[in-house]
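Bumping with the actual sequence this time:
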Amino acid sequence: MKNSRAWRGFFQFSAIFNFTAAFAILFAPELLFKILMMSDTLTIEAIPWMHQFAGLVLVFGVGYWLISTNPLLHKDIVWMGCVGKIVVFSIAWLDIALFNAPIGFGVLVIADLIFAMFFAVVWRSTETAV
């Protein structure tokens, strides 16, 4: 796998992106919602769902950190991360299109789509390396 050091740094950055998002959801949801133009949607009923989502985001971040230690060894996590990021992007934009959800979250998850593209490049390169 070419540029493995750069890819390791990329996956560490991906992990930090996820850790930051998870901690923002867990510890500063009001601020996060305001930044994402969702300040009026934070309700007590949403908090357990947000915590569940934050937990998943955190676990995916741990997976990305694990990938950074050896992308070839953890290519299945690369694939799962690629699929997961595409699903998050797709669902966010479906919510915007079908349910008039605030656009702020959709803007944020454009980063997930970009990450997914890079994950796909790494996954494809691990398939040819084996």
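The tokens above came from a reply further down the thread. The radius of gyration is 16 Å.
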